[in-house]
Write a structure and sequence with these properties.
By secondary structure, the chain is an alpha/beta fold. It folds into two domains: 45-173 and 315-388, 3-Layer(aba) Sandwich (Rossmann fold), CATH 3.40.50; 176-305 and 390-424, Rossmann fold (3-Layer(aba) Sandwich). Helices cover 43% and strands 21% of the residues. It has 13 helices and 17 strands. The protein has helices at residues 3-40, 58-77, 101-113, 125-141, 175-186, 203-219, 240-249, 261-273, 289-293, 314-326, 337-353, 358-365, 422-425, and strands at residues 45-51, 81-83, 86-88, 90-96, 118-121, 148-151, 168-170, 194-200, 224-231, 253-256, 278-281, 301-305, 369-372, 375-380, 385-388, 390-397, 412-420. α3 (101-113) packs parallel to α4 (125-141), α5 packs parallel to α6 and α7 crosses α8. The chain is globular and about 65 Å long.
């Protein structure tokens, strides 16, 4: 080979080496930049949702996931939560409690190990009571790893009364408040002379029956309780024997706090048994109950809630349409405004505190006041019971006056017959809260 060719080859080799070196240097620089940016970017705020996502009440758990996820999406769409470390998004992580106390406590441990500082739970007051006790002990034992507990559905009154905790905040109206709201409609039914009380046999179901007896005695002493029943929670597959007893009692109405499949199967059995009385319910407005009753439920199924899709007003209508656009399938149609307010209140409290420290956030959350879709609610610092308006609706066919929206594609919706302001729904508390340090 000639000297000229050797020189050309050497020059090409040197040029190639130079290009490769520059690429390697650029790649290294980009990698270091990415690592530096990741190190400087504030970590997401982990929210641990502990809920029954399998078993007999899995559909109620999945409904919660959709609601919380939608609320989280809205916070993250505006950049996340403003803290001293910068904007931080929420990261929602699911933990399946299977509706069991032991599983819920195991999920709590896993969530804390995973770095969560906020725990969300609601479907089951028994699970909530177990979590409150465990969190109280954990926060005292490990002050450097404290967590807050936000409750959206566990409505045993004891949770914000004798069992109240600085670490626990409830965003749903408790059972006594809901019974009182139902009673505003029931007491005006002058033809009513007899009722049957039925509920799930655990703390919540027991409290509903207890309060219903007391309020009936106080407001409608002329109404006789002709039957009272507590049944195993989530284990009854055939409610026809219960429906037969209700019909045989001659009760003109049923009062129940049943939820999930325990309510759907009960109202379905009542229809099959030919029962023609009314149902005063906590949760008769979704999860298959309207479809199970069909025409037999029109004018007869009454439900109390923090909000219903047919609440009048443009803000309410836009809110509901936005949810249905996000979750268009008929079986996804169960929206809870209180869960949206809960996440907004959490974001507000963290921004006011400027951090995610549980004590600082709790103190800010005690002062929370949030509004959405025409609904405003505020936290009562005394017992951490959220104060908000309630509505009572009666089942009707879609398209009738006041019922533009149906439920789950069933053709039936709930007409709002009573709107109760927050100050009217408020009830006293016996809470004697222990505060940290």
């Amino acid at each position: 080979m000639s000297a000229t060719l050797k020189g050309v080859s050497l020059m090409r080799l040197l040029a190639l080496f130079h290009v490769l070196s520059r690429r390697r240097l650029l790649t290294t620089a980009l990698s270091l930049f990415a690592l530096t940016a990741a190190a400087q970017s504030p970590a997401p705020i982990k929210l641990a949702l502990i809920e029954g996502l399998s078993g007999p009440f899995a559909n109620t758990g999945e409904a919660v996931v959709r609601n919380i996820a939608w609320a989280v999406e809205r916070v993250n769409a505006r950049g996340g939560v403003k803290t001293a470390q910068g904007l931080r998004p929420f990261a929602l992580e699911r933990y399946d409690s299977k509706g069991q106390n032991e599983e819920a406590l195991s999920a709590l441990k896993s969530a804390i190990d995973d770095g969560a500082q906020v725990v969300l739970q609601g479907n089951s007051s028994a699970n909530a009571a177990a979590l409150i006790d465990a969190i109280n002990k954990h926060n005292e034992r490990e002050p450097g790893k404290r967590v807050l507990f936000l409750n959206y559905s566990a409505v045993d009154p004891a949770l914000t009364n004798e069992k109240c905790s600085f670490w626990h905040f409830r965003f749903d109206a408790h059972a006594d408040m809901r019974v009182a709201a139902l009673m505003q409609v029931l007491r005006e039914d002058k033809k009513l002379r007899s009722v049957y009380l039925i509920g799930q046999d655990y703390s919540f179901g027991q409290s509903v029956l207890r309060e219903a007896r007391q309020q009936l005695q106080a407001q409608r002493p002329d109404v006789a309780v002709v039957g009272e029943e507590l049944h195993p929670m989530g284990r009854v597959k055939d409610f026809l024997p219960y429906a037969a007893k209700i019909k045989a009692s001659g009760a003109q109405a049923v009062i129940t706090g049943n939820w999930g499949n325990d309510l759907t199967l009960l109202v379905k059995a009542a229809r099959e048994a030919g029962y023609e009385g009314k149902f005063y319910t906590f949760y008769g407005n979704a999860l298959g109950a309207p479809a199970a009753m069909g025409d037999a439920g029109v004018g007869r199924v009454v439900a109390v809630a923090d909000w219903l899709p047919n609440v009048p007003g443009q803000a309410s209508e836009q809110f509901y349409r936005a949810f249905r656009q996000r979750f268009p399938k008929p079986n996804e149609d169960y929206v809870h405004l209180r869960m949206q307010l809960m996440i907004e209140a959490l974001a507000q409290a963290m921004e006011r505190a400027g951090s995610t420290d549980p004590v600082a956030v709790a103190l800010a959350l005690e002062k929370a006041r949030v509004s959405l879709a025409g609904q405003t609610g505020s936290m009562r610092a005394e017992d951490h019971q959220f104060q908000q308006g309630l509505v009572v609706g009666t089942m009707a066919r879609q398209g009738t006056p006041g019922v533009p929206f149906d439920v789950e594609g069933s053709g039936y919706g709930f007409k709002v017959v009573r709107q109760i302001r927050a100050e009217q729904a408020r009830m006293p508390t016996t809470c004697k809260m222990m505060r940290p340090g």
